[in-house]
Amino acid sequence: MTLLKIWYEIRNVWQFIADTVYHGKAADIWAAGVTLYYMVVGCYPFLADSVPETYNKIVNCPLLLPDELDRGLKELLQCLLCKDPTLRITLDIVAEHPWVIKDGAIVLPKGSCS
């Protein structure tokens, strides 16, 4: 069995277990949000002592953001870590987010988020 077939099997099992559809791009956005959160806060947003507890926190607990974070950064993190993948921000919108472009001072090249 090839690695790709194994990945598809894992994805199909996950969809069955979670009773949901896999949203690849939205999952990547979530991962970017977790990474950004870790970079600016210094810890993971929903980490617990075990995988089931972490999963429970992801599903059931609100995203906690330190008060001292920039308002724009907080808004971006909330959009990146939106629990509903169908409502999660897209890369095109992230590329134009005021916190990312520093309110217009930095413009990312078109096509970099495709």
Automatic annotation (TrEMBL):
Keywords: ATP-binding, Nucleotide-binding
Organism domain of life: Eukaryota
One term under GO cellular component: cytoplasm
Residue ranges of every copy of the Protein kinase domain listed in the record: 1-100
Gene: LOC111310008
GO biological process, one term: intracellular signal transduction
Keyword check for Nucleotidyltransferase: no
Pfam families referenced in this protein's UniProt entry, alphabetically: Pkinase (PF00069)
GO MF, any single term: protein serine/threonine kinase activity
Matches recorded under InterPro entries: Kinase-like_dom_sf, Prot_kinase_dom
Organism: Durio zibethinus
Name of the protein described by the UniProt record: Serine/threonine-protein kinase GRIK2-like
Coiled-coil region(s): none
